[in-house]
Design brief:
The structure is a homodimer. By secondary structure, chain A is an alpha/beta fold. Chain A is built from 10 helices and 10 strands. In chain A, helix 7 links the parallel strand 6 and strand 7 (152-155). The longest helix of chain A has 13 residues, at 108-120. The interface between A and B is large, with 36 and 35 residues.
Chain lengths: 239, 239
């Protein structure tokens, strides 16, 4: 039996303020919950409406009524599995492989998709500005499809990080070297900018190579979505 | 002054049933509304809270109170511009350039992003199954960022279309030729499958070349998001 105060507590973790106050975040969905349980993340508590699951995973797993789960869930149709995990302490960022740097992504779906892409392309570290959408936001986690278990997202002073990393810094702009002619070094840092404003002036100055994705023919579209642009550039980096 | 029945009518167009009954659809946002007004789409009615806009665009544009706009808008924060346009009659699909075929995309954001990508890569025609999410769904249109003005989306009997088009049919699968080694012919058809189930068995049989996007290193992610996968493949087709 899950009490009202516990439901209220879990629900409060949908807000960034409470996530960081308690150093806890929530994911939903069987696959994602299981991936996080099997990862280095520390489990705080798991709730499920699935008795088989509760009995097979004894540690910290509690059976919950569908009505109670609905009250703590962020989903309009909860899927029966909700996990609460501890926010990990940031680890040192290794500079031996590619790093993706996000200059203030605002949309949770875009950040989630970029985390999933980094996982696909074997990039283990993302650094972001402190104004970036929080990577433990429920909508971000939903879009990562469990990839948050394998990609570390660290808030940094981005200008400072780029200055001290001593790696080539590639940035995506509306003009620059075509991405398929960029001759990427290994490792490097790829900077992707905000959905509306692109890469800020301060960060632009620290980019050592400007790259672009050419559009085809007479298209008058102004830009690609940042997640699809990241997909194309990471594909070229790993090609 | 916009009457209650008119507000109710516009609001009803958020539902597919009423869109097709009246052959009308709604877009919001200054840029998208303007792009559609300047395109081949036929304008039914434009509403705006912006007096300058209303006075500069005389034809079929009506000043509306913010309160009334909020009642007919699909957005939680309406942005001041709402356009109602006629659903165009489907035109013949030319077979001289690449076509993207969607085997039942469910997520409006994914379809909108794919339409925007096709625009970027100069692909003017998308064909879909009849069960695909409707391209005039408000969330799809929001994600296209105006690209719907330049890309035609046509519902077809997909199996029939592929059989009679007499073009090479490329399909994205979990295994196949790596996308950067696919030697794409020009023109061709690219089939992308459903978010959960991929390309259906019936359509799979009509694919003449299976392609895949390799993941990098030890990643255990199961798949890429369909819109990001489409981005990478279209980039390779036009590379």
């Amino acid at each position: 039996m899950v009490g009202k105060s516990q439901i209220k507590f879990i629900k409060s973790l949908q807000q960034k303020k409470y996530r960081y106050e308690h150093q806890l975040f929530v994911v939903e969905g069987k696959k994602t919950v299981q991936e996080l349980m099997a990862s280095d993340f520390e489990t705080y508590k798991i709730y499920s409406t699935d008795l088989n699951f509760v009995e097979s995973e004894t540690y910290n797993v509690e059976l919950i009524k569908a009505d109670d789960l609905k009250k703590m869930s962020n989903l309009s149709t909860p899927n029966g599995y909700l996990g609460v995990f501890k926010i990990p302490k940031p680890k040192k960022i290794p500079l031996q492989d590619w790093i993706v740097a996000l200059d203030t992504i605002s949309d949770p779906g875009n950040l989630g998709t970029i985390i999933r892409l980094c996982d696909w392309f074997g990039i283990k570290n993302i650094v972001t500005t402190t104004n970036n959408v929080d990577c433990f936001n429920p909508k971000v986690l939903q879009a990562t499809m469990g990839s948050i278990a394998r990609v570390q997202v660290t808030c940094v002073d981005l200008a400072d990080f780029l200055k001290t990393a001593n790696l080539p810094v590639y940035g995506a702009f509306m003009s620059g070297t075509a991405v398929h002619q960029a001759n990427f070094t290994n490792p490097g840092i790829l900077v992707m900018g905000n959905e509306s404003n692109g890469i800020s002036e301060e960060i632009s100055k620290l980019v050592t190579k400007r790259i672009t994705i050419n559009h085809f023919g007479a298209s008058t579209t102004e830009s690609l979505n940042v997640a699809t642009a990241t997909a194309i550039i990471l594909h070229e980096i790993r090609r």
